[in-house]
Design goal:
Elements (H helix, E strand, L loop, with lengths): L3 H4 L3 H26 L6 E3 L2 E4 L2 E2 L2 E5 L3 H7 L5 H12 L3 E5 L5 H9 L1 H18 L2 E5 L6 H4 L13 H17 L7 E3 L29 H16 L6 E3 L9 H7 L7 H11 L7 E6 L4 H4 L7 H15 L3 E7 L8 H17 L4 E4 L20 H16 L6
Parallel strand pairs: 4-5, 4-11, 5-6, 7-8, 9-10, 10-11
Antiparallel strand pairs: 1-2, 2-3
Helix pairs in contact: 3-4, 3-6, 4-6, 5-6, 8-9, 13-14, 14-15
Length: 403
């Protein structure tokens, strides 16, 4: 019942206020509607990926500086235009650096979180508008410990300031974008496993560093577990990816003996599962066409087709989907352009035949890799975009059913 004072409230004023509220609500509803009406990204279940409730296979592309370029120069919207062009061409998703690369980047996040996330917001809004998926890799390299004033060994201590800062950034990013339909998955970082257990680690130390700055696989396992737990506090659905490369051919012996003795296939399987821990719900690897069999599996693997088939067998046993976060081949070296094209297509076919779930080519619109890795619509590697688009059509026609 209205009070007597409410009954005396002028109708015209009331209608004016009501109209203003409606007008203010419209843009809010427009922002929220896509998220409310769309399932949330890739889901790993029973050894397969699902998107919109249906089994999903697909091939995207890496757009490394999608966020970092506009973050460095907010007036430069070239990556937003690039995102639109990729979506129009039929590329389903992009993987990108979704955090800092240098100490300066991370300090800027701490000093001005609002300014740090403003360009990130623009990336996500653009992706929503054009309907392309995003896979942000939140900690591209293990450098956060420097901002925390600790050594790299801090990644192995759940009580360290480094892990605390990692949790803070995860909470900020996931909390901010978990309701966006553009986000497909969350990734820890880029090829952290290649930093771990190096017999020659001392040769990579910078001035003032010592063995406490040599990343160990046990420390990496703690970081992965803590990352997954931090994401799962806010997002129970989306797939979690390590972002690892394929293990070195001696990865098991790097850990056990600090030697370069080649691993057996049983030791390779052990390393794959160790580095893609139970905390994650995918197997994440990178593969490259200029890496031959001796570097992939030595005596137990003849080529990438054989390697990927063995990986698929392991993934099926553990009921985990396979995410190849990077694949490709650079120009130059021993191969001429036609041989590069042939090899690139061999890799795509090997992944297709081995029933890889999701993969992303390296790399779109990265100017400092022009002439080597860069793929663009207007350079001589444009055919790779065409091959990726064609592969998507084939993979979409043959989704992997859950076993």
């Amino acid at each position: 019942m209205l009070s007597s004072s409410s009954r005396r409230f002028p109708l015209k004023v009331f209608l004016g206020i009501l109209s203003a509220i409606v007008l203010l609500a419209i843009p809010i509803a427009m922002v929220l509607l896509p998220a409310l009406g769309h399932s949330q990204g890739l889901k790993s279940e029973g050894g397969r990926f699902y998107l919109d409730g249906k089994p999903y296979r697909g091939v995207g592309i890496n757009y490394y500086d999608l966020f970092t370029r506009i973050s460095a120069k907010p007036s430069d919207e070239s990556t937003l235009e690039g995102l639109r062009r990729l979506a129009e061409a039929g590329i389903p998703f992009v993987r990108f650096n979704g955090g800092g690369f240098t100490e300066r980047d991370w300090q800027r996040y701490l000093d001005d979180p609002k300014g740090f996330f403003e360009p990130f917001d623009r990336v996500v809004r653009t992706a929503e508008e054009v309907g392309i998926g995003l896979v942000p890799s939140l900690f591209w390299n293990p450098i956060l410990q420097k901002t925390s004033g600790e050594r790299r060994e801090a990644w192995g201590d759940p009580g360290s300031q480094t892990i605390a800062l990692m949790r803070r950034y995860v909470a900020d990013v996931v909390g901010r974008y978990k309701d966006s339909p553009a986000i497909w998955a969350w990734e820890l970082g880029n090829e952290w496993n290649l930093y771990a257990d190096l017999p020659n680690a001392a040769g990579f130390r910078k001035e003032g560093e010592d063995e406490r700055d040599d990343l160990q696989s046990q420390q990496m396992a703690v970081a992965i577990k803590e990352f997954a737990a931090a994401v799962r506090k806010l997002d129970a659905r989306r797939a979690l990816i390590t972002g690892h490369s394929h293990p070195r051919a001696a990865a098991w012996h790097n850990t056990a003996e600090r030697s370069w003795k080649p691993d057996s296939i049983e030791q390779w399987r052990e390393v794959i599962l160790r580095d893609n821990t139970d905390a994650m719900d995918t197997i994440g690897l990178h593969i490259y066409g200029d890496t031959e069999a001796p570097e992939t599996g030595g005596q137990w693997s003849t080529d990438w087709a054989d390697y990927l088939n063995k990986l698929r067998t392991l993934a099926d046993e553990k009921k985990l989907p396979v995410f190849i976060g990077e694949f490709g081949l650079a120009e130059g070296g021993k191969r001429n352009p036609e041989q590069v094209k042939e090899r690139f297509r061999e890799i795509l076919k090997a992944m297709e035949d081995a029933r890889v779930d999701v993969a992303a080519a390296w790399v779109y619109d990265l100017s400092n890799q022009e002439g080597t890795w860069n793929i663009a619509f207007d350079n001589d590697r444009a055919y790779m975009l065409g091959d990726v688009i064609a592969a998507n059509k084939r993979w979409k026609a043959k989704p992997l059913s859950r076993k």
